[in-house]
Amino acid sequence: MKLEDIASLAQVSKTTASRALADSPLVKDSTKELVKRIAKEHNYRPHTLASAFARKKSGIIGFCLLNKNNPSFGHPFFGPVLDGALEQARKDGYHIILAANSGDDYVFDEPFMQDCIEGVVLSSFAPAKAVREFKNRGIPQVLINDVLPTDNNTFIMDDNYGGAYRLMQHLIYEKGHRRIGFLTDRLSHTSYLLRYFAYIDAHRDAGIPVYTNPLLPQDDLAGGYPLTSDYFLNRYGYEDIPRIGSPMVVVGMRTNVAYEAIQRLIATGDVPSAIFAVSDSLAIGAIHALQEAGLRVPEDVAVAGYDDIISATAVTPALTTVRVDRKEIGRTAIRELEKLIAAPDLQSSVIYIENSLIVRSST
Fold first, then answer.
1. DSSP 62-90
2. Are 228 and 125 in contact (CB under 8 A)?
3. 60-74, 175-189, 237-251: range with lowest mean pLDDT
4. Which residues are CB-neighbours of 20 under 8 A, at least 6 positions away?
5. Beta partners for residue 276, in sequence order
6. Based on C-alpha coordinates, what's the Rg of the chain?
7. Distance (Å, rounded) from C-alpha 108 to C-alpha 11?
8. ∠ at Cα 347 (345, 349), nearest 5°?
9. Whole-angstrom Cα distance, residue 39 to residue 46?
C-alpha cells in the first residue's frame, strides 16, 4: 500500500498524511491518530527519507571535502580527517554524505542533500558562498582549517602555531641552528600563515635574526590569493602578511616544486644550516635536492617538515616533523556539529587540536 492509499482512506491529502505519520505539529492530534491507525491496519511502513523531510531530523550530516587531486579518501590530510568524522558519526548514530568539490563553491549535487541534512562540515579554504547558503537555509555548520567572521559557527583548527613553534625551538635550542630557511606554499593559506608567524616569533624570542638571502626571488607571499579573513592577522598584531627574512614561496605542495626551489637556493651559494618546510611533501623535495647537490642531511643542512604523513618515515633520513591528529580533528568536528544541531544559536568559537613534535634523523 502506498501513502496515497492511506491518505485516501483517511480522506486527507497526501501531504497531510505524510505530516501526520511524521508527528508534525501542523496536523491535529485527531487526524494523526486516524492516519496512524489506518497505516497500522494496512501494515504501511513510511519511507524513512520522506519522514526525515517532514521532521528535519534525518540523522544525516553533510561533509564537504575539498578535492583538488583524486582520490578524496587518499588525501594525506583530509582522508584521515574524514575517517575520524565517520568514526564519531557512527558512534553517535549519524550517517555522513560526502560531497567532494574541486572549486570553492562546495555545491551539493542533490537537492536531497541540501534539504535533508541536519548539519554540515566544510573542510579547508573557508567557502564563504557555501557558508552563506547553509546559513540562509538554517543548517548548522562547522568549518575545518580556517576561521571566518560569521555567527553561530564552530571552527576546528590544528594548533599550527604551537606545533611550528615547538619545532623551531627544537631547531634553535636543541640543535643549535641560527640560520633557518623557511619553505612554504602560499601564505594566504591560514595553516601556513600561522606556521610562518611561529617561525618569525621563535627567532624574535631567541634573539636571533631571521635568515635573509638577497639573491632569492621576492616571491608573492599570498600566492595570488586573498586572505579569507583578517582574524589571525589581528590576533598576532599584523595589518598584512609581513615579509620578514627570505621565505621561499612555491605553488602547490608537490615534492618537485620544493626540489626546484631548493635548487635555486643552492645556486645562490648561501644555504642555511636548517630548513623548515610547512609540509612533509615540501620537506621531502628539499631533502632530494640537497642530497643530489652533495649536501648531507642533517650534517650539512637539517630539514624538518609538518603533518607526519606516511612517507615521512619512507624518506632517508627519516623526517623530523609535527604530527597532526587528523582523526581527532574529524571527530571533534562531528561532536561540535552535534552541539550546534541541538542549539543552533551557540556563539561562534575556535577549537584548536593539539599536535606533537616527532624528532627523527633529518635534524
1. EEEEE-SSS-STT-TTHHHHHHHHHHHHH
2. yes
3. 60-74
4. 10, 12, 27, 31, 32, 34, 35, 36
5. 182, 304
6. 26
7. 37
8. 135
9. 9
| Residue 22 DSSP class | T
Q: What are the CA-CA distances from residue 161 to residues 4, 145, 165, 222, 331 (Å)?
A: 59, 13, 6, 18, 21
Question: 254 or 126, which is more confident?
Answer: 254
**DSSP letter assigned to residue 170:** I
Q: What structural domains and CATH numbers belong to the chain?
A: 3-55 (1.10.260), 60-158+327-354 (3.40.50.2300), 160-323 (3.40.50.2300)
Place of cell 618515515: 313
Residues with Cβ within 8 Å of 267's Cβ and at least 6 positions away in sequence, in order, are none
SS3 289: helix
What's the distance, CA 120 to chain centroid?
A: 13
State the DSSP H helix or E strand holding residue 144, giving kind and residue range, or none if neither: strand 141-144
Q: Which of 138-152, 266-280, 327-341 has the lowest mean pLDDT?
A: 138-152
pTM: 0.82
Measured distance CA(127)–CA(123) in Å, rounded: 9
348 burial via Cβ count (<10 Å: 0-12, 13-18, 19+)? middle
